[in-house]
């Protein structure tokens, strides 16, 4: 499973800024005043070929009361869920009593922790580095989260203690059969769907949110083919969650998504609309690269107007899932559930496709012939050849010149063209664009004797 990294520290030390750097997003709100982050924020990140999950938390000051006490409980629960912890210090403010209290509790937790000395740009950090050693958490790493300085070095140190991504993927693919994760908000019918797909009452299904508290892996066979079904806890809106009533683990669900070959995103048609939580969860699935089947449950009992309304909601709220098939089912009565296996196989086949370099290059030539890349500064962007860079999801590497200036609209065109030509359904496609170095960039032309004489004559005229 993916390593989980929690970010903790005092208020306004730069945790949310570091979160945005590690996830290459702007999901966390950032402002120059303390206490902005109160709930845990989850995001996917990747450095090189190593993916990970990051958890942003609220600030700790020690002796919290009231709302701050609940926030502190959320922080330490994030530490319990995490595999590693990055403890941020402020290089401009130096250490104080709160830092010492956090470090003491962090040592008691037994979690592997790294010290990050943030806002170290332009600062003489020798004094605070010396003080930071007294916290007993190892060598502090100077970083500047706002500019991104030192962040890659920090995350590489953290990930060095975890198995290489290639080893994790090899172990995952060694498992025979397709892994199917059933994900969605609480009470949309995930456990009922799991039982219906298994043909028995294997997991507890009850008409109350939060019945499932952990991800449950179930191996089974259907028509002689092995599968693993993963029933996950419902991901509910953060404002509806408190420490005492929390019935799910977001971390477990996100890890199950990354562990699966295909995710069934279960939506509730009776809810009347596609909610923000549905869209957020769909975004996590898309970022993970897991193949996807959109499953709309509780479709029975809706009249034609209600069904048309919900279809319009899907188009409006989830336009980025246009590559995924949609199935409208009733998990309680079983209608449409059998068709999901065909969709799962199609999505898995698309995610694991292998295409030769010659075929991909020919497709690229046809795409460019049909629609040329735009001019940039008077020069045409040239795309020369393509090859496959990976599977789960398919990765297509395209080589050319000025590829960094290729507009998003043309990248979208290539995505749609390759998807249609390769008949890929239910899986995202990732493109990597590489520009080759000019071999003559740093070389000077060697002039012939005649060219040297011409140059001397020209320079004499210039001097006059």
From TrEMBL:
GO terms for biological process: ribosome biogenesis. Residues 443-464 have a biased composition (Basic residues). The keyword GTP-binding applies. Residues 436-464 are annotated as: Disordered. GTP 1 binds at residues 9-16, 56-60, 118-121. Pfam families: KH_dom-like (PF14714), MMR_HSR1 (PF01926). One of its GO terms (molecular function) is ribosome binding. Belongs to the TRAFAC class TrmE-Era-EngA-EngB-Septin-like GTPase superfamily. EngA (Der) GTPase family. Associates with the 50S ribosomal subunit. GTPase that plays an essential role in the late steps of ribosome biogenesis. This is GTPase Der. The lineage of its organism: Bacteria, Pseudomonadati, Pseudomonadota, Gammaproteobacteria, Chromatiales. The gene is der.
